[in-house]
């Protein structure tokens, strides 16, 4: 038998017989194999016939089975290696395709939510800063760690939740106080960021949340976001005959200073001042007034 015959590739059916025999402790070809196939495999020296001697009847009948030769073991191992290589190549192609899909979903400079493991309680908003390496990881800027560069696996990223619609209306003197998760705690009236912080310190709920949530977030609110404030109650006593007293409860709806200025017809308009870094009432001649100064000038 020439080496060319020994190296002839096995057919799919022959390969299944070779692998089955390789897994058998005695290297036996499965019973019921086609006679023509056994003949071809014998000519290639992959198998040899072996007379069964387990019982007297089998000896007398001349029954045989077939087992792998060392050439057959080599052929079976070659089939096994070829199939494993094909499966590994297929898996690598699928992984590369999946990685390419993730890279297109999270391109460079895109924002995403990093979820390390399902069991982890924390999340991190990151900005992707590189394409994926061979290990499937990318460089990213971490929001949780104040802009520190970290390595994250692309398959651990999720899309950011859809943004809430932008609030309508004009900027007001009201500020929203939020925890780190974006939950609103309270609203305070203030002329600027520092004033809002001072007002928040007077609120028990905000102070308690500041200690437990790792700090607060402050944002100037627009008119559509300002909640109706509970009006203070005033009691007016009116004298009537027979010394009876009637108690009347009145209230008023609090309006912001800019709203009151606009309703009074005061000249100018409220806009953000780059120089002051805050909202200012700007007169037609360009002079800027704080809301309080404008109120004293036009509302008193």
Explain what this protein looks like in three dimensions:
- The chain folds into 4 domains: 3-85, Arc Repressor Mutant, subunit A (Orthogonal Bundle); 106-158, SH3 type barrels (Roll); 170-254, no CATH class; 255-300, no CATH class.
- Helices cover 33% and strands 26% of the residues.
- It has helices at 3-6, 12-23, 35-43, 56-61, 70-105, 193-200, 204-212, 257-264, 291-298, and strands spanning 47-51, 64-68, 111-114, 124-128, 137-142, 149-153, 157-158, 171-178, 184-189, 217-222, 234-240, 244-250, 269-273, 278-282, 288-289.
- The longest helix has 36 residues, at 70-105.
- The N and C termini lie far apart (116 Å).
Total DSSP E strands: 15
Shape: rod-shaped
Average of per-residue pLDDT values? 82
Based on secondary structure, the structural category is alpha+beta
Low-confidence stretches: 245-252
Number of domains: 4
Count the DSSP helices. Answer: 9
In spatial order, strands of the major sheet run 6-5-4-3-7
Quick gist of this model?
By secondary structure, this protein is α+β, with helices and mostly antiparallel strands. It has helices spanning 3-6, 12-23, 35-43, 56-61, 70-105, 193-200, 204-212, 257-264, 291-298; strands at 47-51, 64-68, 111-114, 124-128, 137-142, 149-153, 157-158, 171-178, 184-189, 217-222, 234-240, 244-250, 269-273, 278-282, 288-289. 33% of the residues lie in helices and 26% in strands.
């Amino acid at each position: 038998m020439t080496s060319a015959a020994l190296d002839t590739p096995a057919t799919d059916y022959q390969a299944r017989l070779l692998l089955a025999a390789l897994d058998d402790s005695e290297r036996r070809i499965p019973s019921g194999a086609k006679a023509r196939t056994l003949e071809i495999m014998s000519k290639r020296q992959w198998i040899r016939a072996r007379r069964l001697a387990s019982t007297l009847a089998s000896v007398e009948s001349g029954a045989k089975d077939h087992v792998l030769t060392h050439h057959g073991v080599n052929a079976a191992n070659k089939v096994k290696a070829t199939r494993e290589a094909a499966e590994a190549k297929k898996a690598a192609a699928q992984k590369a395709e999946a990685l390419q899909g993730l890279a297109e979903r999270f391109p460079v400079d895109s924002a995403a939510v990093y979820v390390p493991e399902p069991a982890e309680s924390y999340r991190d908003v990151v900005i992707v800063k590189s394409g994926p390496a061979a290990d499937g990881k990318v460089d990213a800027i971490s929001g949780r760690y104040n802009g520190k560069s970290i390595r994250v696996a692309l398959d651990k990223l999720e899309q950011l939740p859809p943004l809430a619609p932008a609030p309508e209306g004009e900027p007001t003197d009201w500020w929203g106080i939020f925890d780190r998760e974006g939950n609103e705690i309270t609203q305070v009236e203030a002329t600027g960021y520092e004033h809002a912080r001072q007002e928040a310190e007077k609120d028990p709920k905000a102070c308690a949340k500041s200690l437990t949530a790792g700090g607060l977030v402050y944002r100037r609110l627009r008119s559509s976001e300002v909640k109706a404030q509970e009006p203070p109650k005033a009691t007016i006593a009116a004298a009537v005959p027979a010394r009876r007293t009637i108690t009347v409860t009145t209230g008023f709806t609090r309006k912001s200073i800019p709203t009151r200025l606009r309703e009074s017809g005061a000249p100018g308009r409220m806009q953000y001042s780059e120089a002051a870094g805050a909202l200012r009432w700007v007169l037609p001649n360009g002079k800027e007034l704080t809301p309080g100064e404008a109120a004293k000038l036009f509302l008193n």
